[in-house]
Amino acid sequence: MQLDGGLLAFLVLLALIVVDLGIRIGALIVVPRNRRPQTAVAWLLAIYFIPYFGLLFFLVFGRARLPRTRRNKQREINQYILDTTEGIDRVQIDPPWPTWLEPVVQLNRNLGSMPLVGGNVAELYDHDQDALDAMTAAIDAAEKTVHAEFYILSLDDTTRPFFEALARARARGVVVRVLLDHLGNAGYPGFGPAKRMMTRAGIEWHLMLPFQPLRGRVQRPDLRNHRKLLVVDGQVAFTGSQNVIEEPYQKRKNRKKGLRWRDFMARFEGPVVAGIDALFVTDWYSETNELLTREAAPVRTVGDGDLDCQVVPSGPGFSDENNLKMFNSLVYAAQERIHLVSPYFVPDSSMLYALTTAAQSGIEVQLFVSEISDQFGVYHAQRSYYDGLLKAGVRIFLYKAPTILHAKSMTIDDELSVIGSSNFDMRSFSLDLEISVMVRGASFLRRLRAIEDDFRANSSELTLEVWRRRGRWTSILDNLMRLTAVLQ
Predict the structure, then answer these.
(1) What is the pLDDT of residues 311-359, one digit of tens each?
(2) Which of 253, 280, 311 represents a domain boundary (last residue)?
(3) The domain that contains 75 carries what CATH number?
(4) Domain enclosing residue 348, as ranges
(5) Residues 220 and 269 in one domain
(6) Residue 135 lies in a domain
(7) Where does the pLDDT of residue 303 fall: very low under 50, low under 70, confident under 90, or very high at 90 and above?
């Protein structure tokens, strides 16, 4: 039996209508499950306006979780760290603590497994070349092991001494292990040369979160390992916001515009170093199936320094948004002042309410962001929050172009600092593997506040009056980008 053309066309149209309706009804059931309301609404709008492409996009990008095998490895390491550090944090409790600090420490311990450890010392480097020189010198002093893990690790004229130090360390018998993010590096000219140089030097290196479908290595492609850390001999550790790449990020257009990135890194000595190394061990295990057990246990002894430190890992390998919960807890605990530094500021509703509530309560809230950005969508999404923040009393400082302020930190009252790789945006909360270090100690906080003073001196303060004079089309673009920012 043959169908005439008109009937066939009708049946095809009917089938498309049924499929379209099924997609929409199914989306109402599936999309809101275990998602923030604003995220669910954004996905539903995408699926309703462009059903087939919206569905495909959701299937690829709608699940912010690592494969089950990686999550199981994370739980295995977490349990190991908990078992080997039982009781270590209890010896650090001291009566001068503010009353709100102990619950935050316990929150971090429950979510990320790492203990608070005392007796640490730290040094801050707030210029990229100074930090790179310090890391290179530390590698040249290595006697046993070098563990390097960076989101971007790329060879160029600026970073060549760092790679040469790795090669020299390997040549004198030091065990050198390197992790670098796959897609985070793929777009840079120095990616291939970096891999080839490490291979020639006999350095064992592995890609983090590789997206290689032909090799069966597949997960959501925009999940990234955004951590930056270096551990030498288990005695010295660096972490912060800086990638190993020249300041213009190897792009001709950045050089033409004079763009440069400004970061900071912290150098730690003391028991916290083993906690930072344990995070490297976790990622090494995830990528290689090799468990460096002896290098995963934080040190039990208290050092001679004056800083209490707690490593806070976060990312899609955990069931909770560890960094977001810590940040929100600290914002609500603040009594006097909250200072945030982040190149990308796209908070979820919980953080936005926490910050605006603090400002409306009379607490001094300052936000340092860049006047310009290298990320079009994030830049405009970020700007959509300025009106509400300024109305609530948050002071916003725009770091002057052509420098992009890439540092990430939080300081609370005169009590606590947090530094690391995590931005204050939904990508860092949900999609990226991050490292944060919470630090209690006056010397560290004073140094970080001095750096904030320098940021403020090189920034212009944004006022509500000036902000509301921006163009209507710019405002519309900002709000549209805000909607896309929650598609997670």
Answers:
(1) 999 998 888 899 999 999 999 999 999 999 999 999 989 999 999 999 9
(2) 311
(3) 3.30.870.10
(4) 322-484
(5) yes
(6) yes
(7) low
Token look-up 């891999």 returns 195
